[in-house]
Specification:
Blueprint: H1 4-15, H2 20-39, E1 47-48, H3 50-57, H4 61-74, E2 77-80, E3 84-87, H5 92-116, H6 119-138, H7 143-158, H8 164-171, H9 174-182, H10 186-204, H11 208-228
Antiparallel strand pairs: 1-3, 2-3
Helix pairs in contact: 2-4, 2-9, 3-4, 5-7, 5-8, 5-10, 5-11, 6-7, 6-10, 7-9, 9-11, 10-11
């Protein structure tokens, strides 16, 4: 699963290489395309031709080209030689592998968080969890995805590891995660809420073993929802 903070950081670094006007236009193209992909408006396998995309956004082709390059670096689109870019399609094997890798990385991160998090980190996790639960009740198809991202990003931040967020971003996909969350039924939502709470409990009690197990189990269980969606 992309986590917004990681991707935003990568975007900022990439845009520093361009001038102000070009950077602003590239950001507009990047964010617009990413949102359309994440929301399902541009589905897996959809071709993203520079000229039509640029016309639809009221931009030139250059910022669109740069935005597609950034999205390709994130694994959201793939660049096909002499043909252009298209939204990445995830096979069942791809999804299974991505979630298993996430379970390993984020489980380890949760264990580190249990060893390193202070009271302020735990309070932040509880606040983010409350937001997530409210979002699931009132806006399960939209805000809940961002709240879920924020919770997982906060756990990684509490681990105090500079490498783990990058590793997670490499093996995950925000559009996939958002699609999965929007497909959740009541049982999925209840399970997700309880598992998030288990992660918080483990971190709050500095129980690294439980934190690792809780986060890993949470992600592996979500894998079945991903394969179903």
């Amino acid at each position: 699963m992309r986590y917004a903070a990681v991707e935003a950081k990568g975007l900022v670094v990439a845009l520093q290489a361009t001038n102000g006007g070009e950077a602003a236009h590239t950001r507009v193209a990047y964010e617009a395309l990413r949102e359309r992909i994440a929301s399902g408006g541009l589905g897996p396998g959809t071709w993203l031709r520079e000229h039509p995309v640029a016309t639809s956004l009221g931009l030139s082709r250059t910022p669109v080209r740069e935005a597609l390059r950034l999205l390709a670096a994130e694994g959201v689109v793939e660049l096909v030689h002499n043909r252009g870019a298209r939204v990445v399609s995830w096979t069942p094997d791809d999804i299974d592998e991505a979630y298993r890798l996430r379970a390993l990385i984020e489980g380890y991160g949760a264990g580190l968080a249990a060893r390193r998090a202070d009271a302020a980190c735990v309070a932040e996790l509880r606040e983010l969890q409350e937001r997530y639960e409210r979002a699931l009740d009132h806006d399960p198809a939209g805000l809940s995805a961002q709240c879920n991202d924020d919770f997982h990003a906060a756990v990684l931040a509490a681990s105090a590891s500079t490498r783990l967020p990058t590793l997670v971003a490499m093996v995950s996909s925000a559009p996939l995660v958002r699609r999965v969350l929007t497909s959740y039924d009541d049982d999925d939502r209840r399970r997700s809420v309880l598992q998030h709470r288990d992660v918080i409990t483990a971190i709050a009690h500095a129980d690294a073993e439980l934190a690792t197990s809780a986060m890993s189990s949470h992600i592996l269980a979500a894998r079945y929802s991903a394969l179903r969606s």
